[in-house]
Amino acid sequence: MNALEARGIHKRYGGLAALADVDLTVKNGQFVAVIGPNGAGKSTLLNVLTGLAMPDEGQVLLAGQAITRMATNKRIRAGLGRTFQHGRVFARLSVLENVMTGAAIRGRLSESDLRDFSMEIIEQMGLADVAHEAIMSLSYGRRRMVELSRALACRPHVLLLDEPAAGLNSGEVDQLIDRLAELRAMHGLAVVLIEHNMGMVMRLAERIFVLNFGCKIAEGTPAEIQADPAVLSAYLGEGYAHAVV
Amino acid sequence: MADFVQLIINGLAIGSVYALAAIGFVIVYSATGVVNFAAGQFVMFGTFAGVATLVNAQLPWPFAYGAALLIMALFGALFFVSVYLPLRRGSIVTIIIGTVAVSITMQNAALLSFGSWPFRLPSPVEDSAVSLGGAIISLHALAVVAVTAVMVAGLWLLFNRTSVGVGMRAVAQDVQAARLMGLKVNRLLAFSWILAAVLAGVAGLMLGPMWFADVNMGDPIALKAFAATIIGGFGSLPGAIVGGLFVGLSEVLGASYVSSAYKDLISFGIMIAFLLVRPQGVFGEKIQDRG
Amino acid sequence: MAMRIPLQIATAIIVLGGISGMVLPEYHLRLLNLSLISAVAVIGLNFAFGYAGLISLGHAAFVGMGGYGLAILTTTCGWSPWLAAPVAIAATAISAGLIGYPLLRLRGHYLALATLGLNVSFYIVTSNWIAMTGGTNGIARIPGLALGSFSFSGEHQFLWLALMVLALIAAAAAALHKSRLGREMIAVRDDEIASEMTGIDTTRIKIEAFVLSAICAAVAGCLFALHMRFVAPEDFTYAHSITYLAMLIVGGEGTIVGAVLGAVLLTFLPEWLRFLGTAYLFFFGLLVLGILVFLPTGLVGLGQRLSRRSAKTPLLASARAPEATS
């Protein structure tokens, strides 16, 4: 079955078509990447999938259920998860408390269960040493890992990651790639990754969707995408050389 | 019918005062983002500036009005320097509490200088009335409406035909961009405060003869100006005018046809209804990220 | 372990309040009682604003609903205050929920002005609905609270009641701060969209915060009615709402200690400025403005800054996290 599916999504802002007839299918446990130049509509697509923006036309299905008009928090409860392009954490809560807000989604767990469960994730994500620190004392890269931990604490079936590597140093990017690979192996979690770092995309993604000017211009395996002349001319022209190096 | 005409004119007159107070509030809000809770005290200061120059100093009225408005302009500049500049980086709540604190100080400054006994501020067209289809209309009420119309026309020219006004609109749109365009942003911000104070001064001078000059008159005016702003549309000048006139009319008509005790409930009820159903007001742009 | 901080706060309130009660003269005792009542209301406001970020300028209306509720039930209906108080509080909580449901979609100054309009409307209604509220004359002859033969009607006796209630409310608030609901309220203010994305129903949390704040307000209103034995529209104007907010900001928003400190300070400040004679309100405004400009994080923030400066040992200094900006 498909973990997440978007059918014929249209979204316009004023006269500008941000998304025009976009389809996206993510199978259970599949790792999908959405790439495209800036302004191609990638973040708009995530906003439509998570309910921050309502599509003008089209349908969103989560595990076969239509969620097109569902409130964001309900989608999260139904198994969707997301991180943001610039990392959004709760500034007045500690690292552990940030993750606990995510863990609390699972009904009535006791405080100590919430704490234990959250600590497990924090340890998995390599944040155990700062679990009780104020979040704003962490580096930007580690804050983004907290955000990811918080999203994981909601136990999503499908996780949407909006440029998780942006602003991270190369060591942190390598760590992030390892963690994401581990996660996929561990939970059978489906992931939709938006990323400009082509090295990361090519290493992780099983299937790639390419957006340009709000339209899907290609879809396929990493090998197919690399060979697709339409993609090359639209997007990889600048990024491709960099990615191969 | 004659009564009705009289009520309409009176409603428009008091509404004009609310409109001017609301315009001052909106000019400051659009340019600086400050929700000025001292806006009502600005009008009260305007009335008492008139008391000082016209009643106490016994100046002939053109000079008295000029002097009163000059005092208000200076006060606007003082407010810019001593309240706006220190508070401008604060959160919405800090600014609300800060302007309320200043409002307490202003009210008590007036109390210390003028005492709690209300003054009678005369009008240059004192005691004159015209008959209009059987209705006796006070000339002052007509003059208030006329002066407000002239002020509004002047503001329109200012914002559309002068570089200062266009600069102020640019600052209201985007301070960073305005700065990059080489506009002297601070000077324009200061000018918005001065303009707001002068408009409040005009409102105060016109209001004095309709109400008594009382140091406690600021709060009710502020509340009416807020209601006018919300109803017309936050940040919109035409909205402030329409909202002000609406609040004035609903107050006067409500008092005589519905209930004088509950007359104010009408404007606040409508204000809350607008917030719930159409928070952008009559003229405001759609709010999404605002607030 | 989880109850340590709430117990500490409650103990501190009772001990400090008890000692003040023994040394203060009768007139100051009255102010102390009023400040404790305000503290209960301000702790409530801290849920709505300090945690969940809802700018309410209508808090005094909920204090008034509690106060009037108790006054009407004890005088017109002749109920015992012990029964009237919980009913008045419950009725206020329900009203807050009903009002909050449509109103809390608004944000920032829109919410501020809507709640202000609410408070003004409350004033208009209470001063004109004479059959129910006695109009501007208010409601007098509210019975005092008694437990057996012990009456809480003198300033000393009332102080113990006020201290117990405040200690209880403060401890509950401190416990809530570290609970799931507390975290969720804070999350909603820190980042509403990220909260939704963490599965938090932000609308529900805001309403819960608003209702909690109204419950504390109603408790304060009941205390006020039992203390003054009289309620009138003048006691619950929007100026009072602004004072509550000022107390919270001056004390330090987002903290319980700050809420209590701010309430005590702003209640006593006019008294301390009494030497200025009739000019005291003039300086009161300037002083509050000065605190906002120079101590933006309030007294609690000042305290933290001072203690950080005195913590010279490198170990302590590095263990402390930089201040969260909010």
Task: Give structural attributes.
heterotrimer; B: 291 residues; mainly alpha; two-stranded antiparallel sheet; 11 helices; 73% helix; C: 326 residues; two-stranded antiparallel ribbon; 15 helices; 74% helix; globular; disordered C terminus
Task: Briefly characterize the structure.
The complex is a heterotrimer of chains A (245), B (291) and C (326). By secondary structure, chain A is an alpha/beta fold.
Describe this structure in words.
The complex is a heterotrimer of chains A (245), B (291) and C (326). Chain A has 2 domains: 1-79 and 156-172 and 188-245, P-loop containing nucleotide triphosphate hydrolases (Rossmann fold), CATH 3.40.50; 89-155, no CATH class. Chain A contains 9 helices and 10 strands. Chain A has helices at 42-50, 72-77, 95-103, 111-124, 140-153, 170-187, 198-204, 222-227, 229-244; strands at 2-13, 16-27, 31-35, 57-62, 65-66, 80-83, 158-162, 190-194, 207-212, 215-220. In chain A, the strands form 2 sheets. A 6-stranded mixed sheet of chain A has the order 6-7-8-3-9-10, sandwiched between helices. Chain A has a 4-stranded antiparallel sheet with strand order 2-1-4-5, covered by helices on one side. In chain A, strand 7 (158-162), helix 6 (170-187) and strand 8 (190-194) form a beta-alpha-beta unit. In chain A, helix 3 (95-103) crosses helix 4, helix 3 (95-103) runs parallel beside helix 5 and helix 4 (111-124) packs across helix 5. Residues 239-245 of chain A have low confidence and may be disordered. Chain B has a domain at 18-214. Chain B has 11 helices and 2 strands, in the order ααααββααααααα. Chain B has helices at residues 2-32, 39-56, 61-87, 92-114, 139-161, 163-173, 175-180, 185-207, 218-232, 237-257, 263-277; strands at residues 129-132, 135-138. In chain B, a hairpin with a 2-residue loop joins strand 1 and strand 2. In chain B, helix 1 packs antiparallel against helix 10. The model of chain B is unreliable at 286-291 (pLDDT under 50). Chain C has one domain. The model of chain C is unreliable at 312-326 (pLDDT under 50). With 326 residues, chain C is mostly helical. Chain C has helices at residues 4-23, 26-51, 59-75, 81-103, 108-128, 130-133, 155-177, 180-190, 192-196, 202-228, 238-251, 256-272, 280-294, 298-310, 314-319; strands spanning 146-147, 150-151. Helix content of chain C is 74%, strand content 1%. Chain C has a two-stranded antiparallel ribbon. In chain C, helix 8 packs across helix 10 (202-228). The relative contact order of chain C is 0.17. Chains in contact: A-C, B-C. The interface between B and C is large, with 44 and 43 residues.
